[in-house]
């Protein structure tokens, strides 16, 4: 009997190695891990952190309250088998790189590929909140945390480092994610 992962490889036509090789040679990528979606953690408290504590809340269409709730995101994640968690260098434009990688993987046959970045969207000086129609919908993607993903737990589940930043001397760890198939 075929495992879930074997089935998804056949569906997408891409092995873990092919995806890893493709992503690892991208500028700004420090490391890549491919994990089952069951290792990605969603939690209700993540939304609370966006709403009370982040000045990006309600300021762009890829942030809450416009993004999927943690429950909706859990359902989305459960409709995939594999995700790729990507550790980026600190100076990398994660949002732009993630959507380029999403496209590269999509064009190789993973038709469900969808990227999630980190932080608010800065593609426009002012977000198109009034009309609710994103000016760059083909490139704007939400952050993981904007969709209720607990990035700390998920990164640690993938074996990546991530710590609470206590002062400006500490170097943060930045991640992006691509839902593969
Ligand atoms: S691309 Fe522009 S309109 Fe779309 S979410 Fe980003 S800032 Fe808003």
Question: What would you say this structure looks like, in words?
Answer:
- The protein has 181 residues and is an alpha+beta fold.
- It is built from 6 helices and 4 strands, in the order ααβααβαβαβ.
- It has helices at 4-12, 16-24, 44-51, 70-77, 94-107, 151-157; strands at residues 29-36, 82-88, 114-116, 174-179.
- It has a 4-stranded antiparallel β-sheet, with helices on one face.
- The protein starts with a helix and ends with a strand.
- The structure holds iron/sulfur cluster.
Brief digest:
The protein is α+β, with helices and mostly antiparallel strands and 181 residues long. It has helices spanning 4-12, 16-24, 44-51, 70-77, 94-107, 151-157, and strands spanning 29-36, 82-88, 114-116, 174-179. It has 6 helices and 4 strands.
Classify the secondary structure makeup into a structural class: alpha+beta
How far apart lie the N and C ends?
19 Å
Task: Write down the overall mean pLDDT.
Answer: 92
Order of helices and strands: HHEHHEHEHE
Please give the share of residues in helix.
25-40%
Small-molecule binders = iron/sulfur cluster
What's the total number of strands? Answer: 4
Number of domains: 1
Largest sheet: 4 strands, antiparallel
What is the global morphology?
A: globular
Number of helices: 6
Describe the oligomeric state of these chains in a short phrase. single chain
User: Strand order across the biggest sheet?
Assistant: 1-2-4-3
| Uncertain parts | none
Query: Strand fraction band?
Result: 5-15%
- Nearest-angstrom radius of gyration? 16 Å
């Amino acid at each position: 009997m075929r495992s879930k992962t074997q089935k998804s490889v056949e569906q997408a036509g891409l092995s873990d190695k092919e995806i890893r090789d493709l992503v690892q040679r991208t500028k700004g990528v420090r490391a890549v891990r491919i994990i089952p979606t069951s290792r990605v953690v969603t939690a209700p408290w993540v939304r609370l952190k966006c709403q009370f504590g982040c000045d990006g809340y309600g300021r762009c269409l890829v942030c809450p309250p416009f993004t999927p709730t943690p429950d909706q995101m859990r359902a989305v994640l459960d409709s995939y088998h594999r995700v790729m968690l990507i550790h980026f260098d600190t100076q990398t434009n994660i949002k732009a790189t993630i959507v380029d990688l999403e496209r590269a993987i999509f064009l190789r046959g993973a038709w469900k590929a969808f990227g999630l970045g980190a932080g608010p969207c800065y593609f426009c000086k002012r977000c198109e909140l009034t009309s609710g129609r994103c000016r760059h919908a083909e490139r704007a993607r939400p952050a993981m945390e904007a969709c209720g993903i607990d990035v700390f737990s998920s990164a640690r589940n993938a074996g990546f480092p991530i710590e609470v930043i206590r002062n400006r001397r500490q170097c943060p760890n930045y991640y992006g994610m691509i839902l593969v198939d």
